[in-house]
């Protein structure tokens, strides 16, 4: 007997002892044309199962998206049987959830159950008053409605087809649909798992006049162990298309499982990288790899580093990700072509990563998936050039132990993606960030073809961020070029005149100290000359 089977058997036994034969008044709707009977057919509770493990937990506990949305999963049972309860994971900021639905593939409502909303975090089981029979190998959808968004999600978890616990899941089995009306969710985004599930008993329903199931939801206690199937790297929530976006968005990267071997290139000592000019902001020509640099090793695809304190030098990586799975790793003189770096694997962050004298350029076709070039947190970038990606640096992973991110003497140029549905691009984005420190760096956002991003610097409240420490930051582009909702010191902030959609800054006045900001124009060499000073506003962006 599995843990899930034992738990369901125990739950049903306790429920029946508590409720007896009383009837339930819980707003349950049966399938069209069916009559809801006051009794539940006898089922084999010990055989009950579900699609996902009891101790599965979301990588992102609360997405910042706050729109009403129906969230679910598309599944097919391998054997005929009956659904006796619907389940969803109650996130810490998911407010007002009180409706779950079981659908046929064509959108016919097979069962709907309403219940009182709760803020208690964890898997929630809502029993049906009458089991709903399902046919083998037919497709169904179970979903719940989040009227204020804030839902838990793990992106890329359901990107590939698989079979588990007696259910078949197609690729991109996680589905969603925006709107306040209850409609079958059909849209997908990057294989996201939205944590909806069923309690299913294989085999035919025998009929009878057994005790009705309670409508009171039950909770699964949080285990000490987390089992998350096939975690993978990154994305942000699936927003609907729109014009220039202002609402915050972000996601935490989802690294792939760590392999057992790591090959590290032999250290080479080429000429030193050119330092940024004294007293000048970095440009694309003064940052990155040294002149005349050549790689000592070239790889295509993913590259892994698992040795603490390792120094990886003079590596060119194309169409892949450098997975740093050890502490205090140094990446020096790295050429990334359509490549990224991740130092978080599941619930573990590998702090102390340093990336210096390196260049990351984007040449392939891009989309608005929200994947950063470098993330999640607890790292330093120094003399790094990032050019052409839709997302730059992620400051995150605090819940996984990631520390402060430091950006020094670097140049980041973010560009609108080739495929633009609802781009929320940022140069530096904070989401679950332990803190960000910036010294003498430049971030530019190039918005083209009506595809608008959010901000070159985006570190809002309401996303688990902590503090800022900025001294020397030149920004251009975005809705607001500088958006901050967290406390800290901001000095020598310069925003290019006329290069924003709504305004130069959006900052809560009470959060900042040592505020020194100005609107500037760039001279022929790309360096700023002051046009006017600007003050913080009463805007909040979190």
Shape: globular
What class would the helix/strand composition place it in? mainly beta
Helix tally?
1
Helical content (DSSP H or I, runs of 4+): under 10%
Main sheet characteristics = 13 strands, mixed
Residue share in β-strands: 35-45%
**Which stretches of 5+ consecutive residues score pLDDT under 50?**
1-45, 206-216, 218-278, 538-542
Radius of gyration: 26 Å
What is the residue-averaged pLDDT?
A: 80
Intertermini distance: 46 Å
Instruction: Please give the number of β-strands.
Output: 36
Write the layout of secondary structure elements.
Blueprint: H1 3-19, E1 29-30, E2 69-77, E3 81-90, E4 99-104, E5 109-114, E6 122-134, E7 140-146, E8 162-164, E9 167-169, E10 174-178, E11 196-202, E12 218-219, E13 297-300, E14 303-305, E15 311-318, E16 321-324, E17 330-337, E18 340-342, E19 344-345, E20 348-349, E21 353-361, E22 374-375, E23 379-389, E24 393-396, E25 405-408, E26 411-415, E27 426-431, E28 436-446, E29 455-459, E30 468-476, E31 480-484, E32 488-496, E33 503-507, E34 512-513, E35 517-522, E36 528-534
Parallel strand pairs: 13-15, 14-16, 15-17, 16-18, 17-21, 18-22, 21-23, 23-25, 23-26, 24-27, 25-28, 26-28, 27-29, 28-30, 29-31, 30-32, 31-33, 32-34, 32-35
Antiparallel strand pairs: 1-5, 2-7, 2-9, 2-10, 3-6, 3-11, 4-5, 4-7, 6-12, 8-9, 19-20, 35-36
Q: What do you see in this structure?
A:
- With 542 residues, the chain is mainly beta.
- The protein folds into two domains: 3-219, no CATH class; 297-534.
- It contains one helix and 36 strands.
- The chain has one helix spanning 3-19; strands spanning 29-30, 69-77, 81-90, 99-104, 109-114, 122-134, 140-146, 162-164, 167-169, 174-178, 196-202, 218-219, 297-300, 303-305, 311-318, 321-324, 330-337, 340-342, 344-345, 348-349, 353-361, 374-375, 379-389, 393-396, 405-408, 411-415, 426-431, 436-446, 455-459, 468-476, 480-484, 488-496, 503-507, 512-513, 517-522, 528-534.
- Residues 1-45, 206-216, 218-278 and 538-542 have low confidence and may be disordered.
């Amino acid at each position: 007997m599995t843990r899930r089977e034992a738990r369901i058997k125990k739950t049903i036994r306790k429920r029946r002892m508590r409720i007896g034969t009383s009837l339930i008044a819980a707003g349950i709707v049966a399938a069209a044309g069916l009559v809801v009977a006051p009794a539940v057919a006898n089922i084999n509770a010990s055989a009950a199962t579900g699609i996902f493990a009891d101790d599965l937990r979301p990588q992102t506990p609360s997405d910042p998206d706050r729109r009403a949305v129906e969230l679910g999963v598309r599944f097919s049972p391998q054997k005929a049987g009956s659904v006796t309860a619907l389940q969803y994971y109650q996130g810490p900021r998911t407010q007002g959830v009180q409706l779950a639905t079981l659908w046929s593939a064509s959108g016919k409502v097979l069962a709907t159950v309403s219940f009182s909303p709760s803020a208690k975090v964890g898997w929630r089981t809502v029993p049906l008053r009458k089991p709903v029979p399902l046919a083998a190998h037919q497709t169904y959808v179970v979903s719940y409605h989040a009227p204020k968004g804030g839902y838990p999600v793990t992106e890329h978890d359901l990107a590939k087809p698989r079979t588990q616990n007696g259910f078949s899941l197609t690729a991109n089995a996680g589905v969603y649909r925006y709107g306040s009306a209850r409609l079958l969710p059909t849209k997908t985004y990057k294989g996201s798992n939205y944590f909806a599930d069923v309690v299913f008993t294989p085999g035919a329903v025998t009929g009878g006049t057994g005790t009705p199931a309670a409508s009171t939801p039950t909770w699964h206690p949080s285990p000490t162990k987390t089992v998350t199937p096939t975690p993978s790297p990154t994305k942000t929530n699936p927003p609907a298309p729109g014009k220039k976006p202002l609402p915050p968005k972000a996601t935490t990267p989802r690294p792939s499982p760590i392999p057992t071997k790591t090959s590290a290139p032999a250290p080479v000592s080429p000429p030193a990288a050119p330092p940024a000019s004294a007293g000048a902001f970095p440009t694309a020509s003064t940052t990155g790899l040294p002149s005349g640099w050549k790689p000592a090793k070239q790889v295509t695809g993913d590259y892994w580093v698992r040795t603490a304190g390792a120094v990886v030098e003079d590596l060119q990586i194309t169409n892949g990700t450098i997975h740093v799975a050890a502490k205090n790793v140094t990446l020096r003189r790295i050429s990334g072509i359509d490549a990224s770096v991740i130092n978080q694997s599941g619930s573990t962050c590998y702090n102390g990563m340093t990336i210096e004298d390196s260049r990351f350029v984007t040449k392939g076709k891009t989309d608005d998936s929200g994947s950063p070039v470098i993330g999640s947190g607890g790292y330093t970038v120094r003399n790094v050039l990032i050019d052409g990606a839709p997302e730059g640096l992620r400051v995150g992973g605090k819940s996984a132990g990631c520390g402060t991110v430091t950006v020094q003497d670097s140049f980041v140029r973010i560009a609108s993606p080739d495929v633009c549905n609802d781009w929320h691009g940022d140069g530096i984005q904070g989401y679950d960030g332990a803190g960000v420190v910036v010294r003498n760096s430049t971030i530019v956002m190039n918005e083209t073809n009506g595809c608008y991003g959010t901000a070159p610097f985006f570190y809002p409240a309401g996303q688990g961020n902590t503090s800022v420490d900025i001294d020397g930051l030149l920004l251009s582009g975005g809705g607001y070029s500088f958006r901050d909702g967290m406390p800290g010191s901001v000095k020598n902030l310069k925003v290019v005149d006329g290069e924003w959609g709504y305004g130069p800054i959006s900052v809560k006045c009470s959060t900042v100290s040592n505020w020194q900001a100005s609107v500037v124009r760039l001279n022929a060499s790309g360096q700023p000359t002051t046009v006017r000073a600007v003050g913080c506003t009463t805007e909040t962006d979190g």
